[in-house]
Amino acid sequence: MDMQISFLDRLFDSGLLIETGVEGLYGRSGEFEGVIAAFERLIDRVGGEDGAEAIRFPPGMNRAFFEKSGYMKSFPQLAGTVHSFCGCELDHMSLLKCMEEGNDWTGEQKATDIVLTPAACYPLYPTIAKRGNLPVSGGLYDLQSYCFRHEPSNDPARQQLFRMREYVCMGTEAKVTEFRQLWMDRGVKMMEDVGLSVEIDVANDPFFGRAGKLLANNQRDQNLKFELLIPVTSDVKKTACMSFNYHQDAFGAKWGLNLEDGAVAHTACVGFGLERIALALFAAHGLDTRLWPENVRKVLWG
Amino acid sequence: MNETIRNLLTKLGGLPVAVDSLADDADLYAAGLSSFASVQLMLGIEEAFDIEFPDNLLNRKSFASIAAIEKTVATIIEAQEAA
């Protein structure tokens, strides 16, 4: 039996996820949201003392920033752009006629200035760059956003619209790599505290095409990305529930993020896949949170 | 081959230094070759030599220096001729 479909079916049957007719696009029940809220409070308790500046962007970003980010060079297959009807009354008539006849009405939709956010930190870099040089202590930011990636799948852990909680650090190479290591240690401890078995492994982003193979190998050779893996739908093919990314000075150079002395900032980010963590908890402890082990409930709900 | 590679590197490498000033064994990453430039370079080399990089040679080491690129290209040509 396909384990992924089976777990997804169980999630639908229990009402934790709500089917919409589109793979990877689901509603969430109150209980599901309760787990995410509790885990976010755990993140707050672990990371709160660091004094990160909290910023929340909506799940859409400025298309000009998206274009400058280079996302289309690496992941054109995952991007989602927002299009709208921009015609006159006559165009409206043709649109309705087209829809009524069951023809493709989307061709005349025009791109708006908004692109769906592919990762929570994408809108951050131009925002911080606009402020001028970073303070001597660098920068630390706390973000959370729904993100979009066009990858329809019946794996409940691969959703098209999902939430990513992130901490982003900007500063010297030493500062940001230390930050990344700190969160790798914290991440393992947090997952163990909620009864999840974890491992950390070097990883690469899903770069597009054959050229992407070279980029992926470059990323691995340089240990730029690590993932924290937890069994969700399979014990063999584990699911990445956190990622730890060191961008070197790539984003600093691209966006003009400079340190107080004018040197280009290095950046790193850690991301929590909130739905994936909730799913890992449901897979490990069962679909009824009231029946979860007492020590896990205590960590999450006190 | 060396000259073709150097010409491609000048055109596609986006290096802040003159390619002529680099020795054959100079570290191209240290000279400023970015990941994306290495992709452009890879595609340029494929076109110029009418070859296709196999997956196992699509890595950082293959583009580490002009000499490394020469060696990689020679390996691919040899394999293609043998096939």
TrEMBL record, chain A:
<keyword id="KW-0436">Ligase</keyword>
<dbReference type="GO" id="GO:0004812">
    <property type="term" value="F:aminoacyl-tRNA ligase activity"/>
</dbReference>
<protein>
    <submittedName>
        <fullName>Seryl-tRNA synthetase</fullName>
    </submittedName>
</protein>
<dbReference type="InterPro" id="IPR045864">
    <property type="entry name" value="aa-tRNA-synth_II/BPL/LPL"/>
</dbReference>
<keyword id="KW-0030">Aminoacyl-tRNA synthetase</keyword>
TrEMBL record, chain B:
<feature type="domain" description="Carrier">
    <location>
        <begin position="1"/>
        <end position="80"/>
    </location>
</feature>
<dbReference type="Pfam" id="PF00550">
    <property type="entry name" value="PP-binding"/>
</dbReference>
<dbReference type="InterPro" id="IPR009081">
    <property type="entry name" value="PP-bd_ACP"/>
</dbReference>
<protein>
    <submittedName>
        <fullName>Acyl carrier protein</fullName>
    </submittedName>
</protein>
<dbReference type="InterPro" id="IPR036736">
    <property type="entry name" value="ACP-like_sf"/>
</dbReference>
